[in-house]
Amino acid sequence: MGEVGLTPERNSTTISPADLSGGQKQRAVIARALILGHHDYWSWNEGVAMLDMSIRARVLQLMLDLKRAFGLTYLFITHDLALRS
Fold first, then answer.
1. What digits encode the pLDDT tens for the residues 7-41?
2. CA distance linking residue 26 with residue 50, whole number of Å
3. In angstroms, rounded to a whole number, what is the distance separating the alpha carbons of residues 5 and 34?
4. Rounded distance between C-alpha atoms, residue 38 and residue 65, angstroms
5. Do the beta carbons of residue 72 and residue 64 sit within 8 Å?
6. Which of 13, 14, 46, 78 sits most deeply, having the most CB atoms within 10 A of its CB?
7. Interatomic CA distance for residues 52 and 54, integer angstroms
8. Strand 73-77 to strand 41-45: parallel, antiparallel, or no bridges (unpaired)?
């Protein structure tokens, strides 16, 4: 959980999804994929569409950091043409 920025880690497992913000929910999904060992190829369909701009930027930066750290490959599907690498 700490790898994706969810802190404190000890409380992250007892919080219900309704108690998480949009950015925290995205980070929880990312953590779950990391825990399950799905490191080869990730498909994101509108992965940051409902997040405000500051949170969106942080989640996208997290994705880039994890790409470098774990050698991930992404298929990123979005209607937001402003999102490009």
1. 766 565 677 778 888 888 888 888 888 888 867 78
2. 10
3. 13
4. 16
5. no
6. 78
7. 6
8. parallel
Closest CA to 85 of 52, 50, 44: 44
Predicted TM-score (pTM) above 0.85: no
Tokens of 23: 């950015």
C-alpha distances (whole Å) from 65 to each of 17, 47, 74, 75 are 24, 16, 13, 16
- The whole-angstrom separation of Cα 20 and Cα 9 is 14
HEC string of 17-82? HHHCCHHHHHHHHHHHHHHCCCCCEEEEECCCCCCCHHHHHHHHHHHHHHHHHHCCEEEEECCCCC
What is the phi-psi region of residue 71: left when phi exceeds 0, alpha when psi lies from -120 to 50, beta otherwise?
left
